[in-house]
Amino acid sequence: MKDFWNERYAAKDYAYGIEPNVFFSQQLENLPKGKILFPAEGEGRNAVYAAQKEFEVYAFDSSKEGKIKAEHLAKHKNVSLNYLISSIEETKYPQHFFDGIVLIFAHFPSKSRKEYHQKLLTYLKPNGFIIFEAFSKKQIHNTSGGPSNAEMLFSENEIKIEFSEINFTFLETVEVHLEEGPFHQGKASVVRFIGTKK
Q: In which band, very low, low, confident or very high, does the pLDDT at 71 lie, cut at 50, 70 and 90?
């Protein structure tokens, strides 16, 4: 997968644009400033936005091309990121280090996904927040982006199991219209939630 993402991010244009995800940007307005982690952050559009909003931003991705694009965008916006080139298996942060975690279209292999999510939650402080949006199982019928493997898509029940340590403020499956660069365009079905760690 690393080669796939390096190839996609090596293009001149930003694969998913330079503007933040709409749901994420709306939710961030309501949350207290602090340290915030962006796993699988790719070209950095959401991390850079959070840095502009004066959060202390950490991010990682397995793609070196993604980091290059993210740092270029950060420089253009006159902000800084703590960005690592790392897989989720290799990533290590202190326990209870972050005030928030943001997962936007972070689709991991189904066999490892629960383990990965549980690992990420160890980095989150008690009462720390999580913002999540990803493609739902219904997205398999749409052409607006996301994995072609249905097992990498989400249901609300799977989220409740994989994020059992989270108190959900809300959890919903909705249809949206995406306009996020060349690879996220059109009608889409997403699952999203806001919650805090128990």
A: very high
